[in-house]
Amino acid sequence: MNPFLLVILLGIVQGVTEFLPISSTGHMILVERFINSPNISKHFMDNFLVIVQFGSIISVLLYFWGDIHPFVKNKEVLIERVTLWSKILVGVIPAGVIGFLADDYITEMFMGNTKIVAIMLIVYGIILYFIEDKIKAKKITSLKDISYKTALAIGFFQCLAMIPGTSRSGATIVGALLLGLSKSVAAEFSFFLAIPTMFGATLLKLMKSGLSFTSQEWTLMFAGSFTAFIVAYIVIKWFMGYIKTRTFKLFGVYRIILGILVLLLIK
Questions:
Q1: b vs e for 142-181, b when ≥16 Cβ sit within 10 Å of the residue's Cβ?
Q2: What does pTM read for this prediction?
Q3: Neighbouring C-alpha atoms within 13 Å toward the C-beta of 107
Q4: Run of H or E residues at 260
Q5: What does the longest C-alpha to C-alpha distance in the chain come to?
Q6: Dihedral angle of Cα 249, 12, 32, 99, to the nearest 10 degrees
Q7: Digits of tens for pLDDT over the chain (267 positions)?
Q8: Do residues 15 and 28 lie in contact, with contact meaning Cβ atoms separated by under 8 Å?
Q9: How far apart are CA 31 and CA 193, in angstroms?
Q10: Are the beta carbons of 186 and 173 closer than 8 angstroms?
């Protein structure tokens, strides 16, 4: 496939899947595995699969800007937002520490491993299908009711997504539900937690790559990220409306079916 068309496709996949509990990295690995381009180096692709997330980060900031920016005159609202961001930063500590220490190992062991992606799709698909039936009590129905302890615990759940096929949003939402958050609050906190997490992962990849990309590769990087930005914004808006009246069962079924199909195809 033409490199430009491939990164556009990957950008669409990233934008659609980043904030849905179905694993964006897992899907991009599958696309890259089954629709490969001999004109793209492995060095570029390993970095692209992470850096393309930057477009999705911007979409979260734009969509929720009115709820999270600190440029407000009301002192009470300002304190609430500063407190929220301090909890988000606490929540990102586990992924920041583990990601920094284990990034090379994770890349070597898991990135590009189609079988692991398929297995994780199935495992977390089963969890998503049954999670809401098993958890009834929702003690936390507002972002301001999330404690620092709960934020840190959700941050540890997020670390599970370092294995491709797990889903960062899926892991954090499942963890949040287990800790008593309502679906909408779990989704919102998952989105906010993504901002420093994904920005940090992108920055780490850029630093480790030494910015050693050709002009064509930078163009491909921008094209994929911009595509992810547009698509992710649309998906966030749809998903926030969807979870108000629907369960996560559909995503669980999708993951299970996709995982089984992938296992059959790679035999």
A1: ebeebeeebbebbbbbbbbbbbbbbbbbbbbbbbbbbbbb
A2: 0.85
A3: 19
A4: helix 249-265
A5: 60
A6: -70
A7: 788 888 899 999 999 998 899 888 778 778 877 776 667 777 788 788 888 888 999 999 999 998 888 888 898 999 999 999 999 999 999 988 887 787 677 767 766 678 888 899 999 999 999 988 877 667 898 999 999 999 999 999 998 888 888 888 899 999 999 999 998 899 999 999 989 888 887 888 788 777 778 889 899 999 999 999 999 999 999 999 998 888 899 999 999 999 998 888 876
A8: no
A9: 26
A10: yes
Q: Helices 168-178 and 148-158, interaxial angle, to 10°? A: 140
Residue 20, SS3? coil
- For the record, the structure tokens of 38 come out as 């001999």
Residue at token pair 């590769």: 217
Ordered DSSP codes for 83-150: HHHHHHHHHHHHHHHHHHHHHHHHHHHTTT-HHHHHHHHHHHHHHHHHHHHH-----B-SGGG--HHH
- Residue 211 DSSP one-character state: T
Residue type, 121: L
Q: How far apart are CA 227 and CA 19, in angstroms?
A: 15
User: How far is residue 135's CA from residue 18's CA, in Å, rounded to a whole number?
Assistant: 25
